[in-house]
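To: structure subgroup
Subject: Chain for Friday's discussion

All,

I'm putting the inputs and outputs inline so they're searchable in the archive.
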Amino acid sequence: MNIFYTLLDKLYVNITNVCSCSCVFCLRESGDGVGDADTLRLSHEPTLDEIKSAFDSCLDNDRLDNKIEIVFCGYGEPMERAETVIAACGYIRSKSTLPLRLNTNGLVKLINPHFDLKKLSVFDSVSISLNAADKEEYFRLVRPRFGIEAYDSMLEFAREAAGYTKVVLTVVDIIGEEHIEKCREIALDIGVPLRVRRHISDNISYS
């Protein structure tokens, strides 16, 4: 299994194939491989011990050399396994000084309602997929299993998470400049930056 994979100058952590969304632009719609991983499909959800062992192998094989960041972002939504993510971060922190980032759809308040957002302080930054300037367009593009009200939950999460770590809202450039500008206004209202992610030819749309 590819629990860890590299793309450009970052090491990514892939711990679940489960996702509460089915984004129209997601790589899951067209393929399995990213970076140096031929597939991100997991045979099973790795245990914390398996994640630790895989990270130790990364260290032993110098896979962290020339990396600038470790990012929890795989074939599924990391916060489907929120407590495992936090525990894995603690282990990685004990072995590496590289910054830690979480890429998330921002729906953890619906996925795991009892998750303590204070635990997000283990991350140096959290990137939240905004991807639309209103709930109707969000529902069309992101197709969350929680329905159209998921948009408001995501924005509430962004506001609350900003109290514990650096938060960045992100959009994919294919939504168009008019929508991107409206998303900038939303980010400004929350008080966080907006990053525009480039959607490239093989459907990889995160960084």
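Points worth raising on Friday:
The beta strands are 4-7, 10-13, 69-72, 100-104, 125-129, 166-172, 194-197.
The longest strand covers residues 166-172.

D.
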